[in-house]
Amino acid sequence: MNKQGQESLETSIPTSAILDYNINATSIHYILHNLFRGLKPVRRKYKLTINEIIFLNGIYFYCKHVSTCISQDACLKFISYYNLPKIKYYIGSLQTKGMIHVAEIINGYNRYKLTPQGITVMDDVNEGFERCLYEWFNKYSISL
Q1: Which of residues 130 and 88 earns the better pLDDT score?
Q2: How many helices and strands (H and E) does the chain possess?
């Protein structure tokens, strides 16, 4: 059959169906803008990357709300943004920087926990976002 003679069947999906979230572009911009501004002092002070802070934050939430320690497999399932080689990399990197440590070993699997310095980083992240949010609301004269 002549392929040039065939009509192309294009399936078009309306943009609104793809991007049908209850978040407008302004909110997304605000979140990203303040994410990087809020993390800037923490990144400089502790010499951490954005990904390390996000990973540390995931460990913090897991240890606070799910269990006292987190394994490599739990990181893979809970944080779910990174693949196993990246999980191993960030665990090693955060251990080297003194943010997490092996809290226990169960059946040959290491389970990690935040160190006091890791908890301090999470406190600083929270303070950075609060300060950034306060400045942003004042800049645009927004009151809640």
Answers
A1: 88
A2: 6, 3
pLDDT at 8: 46
Domain with 81, as residue range(s), is 45-139
Per DSSP, the three-state class of 110 is strand
Q: Does residue 107 have a pLDDT over 80?
A: yes
**DSSP of 95-122, one letter per residue?**
HHTTSEEEEEEETTEEEEEE-HHHHHHH
C-alpha separations of 80 from 51, 60, 71, 83 in Å:
13, 15, 13, 7
Separation between Cα atoms, residue 129 and residue 117, nearest integer Å: 19
CATH code, 90: 1.10.10.10
Q: How many domains does the chain divide into? A: 1
Q: Does the pLDDT value for residue 18 go beyond 60?
A: no
Is the pLDDT reported for residue 27 higher than 50? Answer: yes
Report CA Rg, the chain.
21
**100-106 β-sheet, strand order:** 70-71, 109-114, 100-106
Lookup: tokens for 106: 């169960």
In degrees and rounded to multiples of 5, residue 28 shows phi and psi of -65, -45
Is the residue at 26 inside a domain?
no
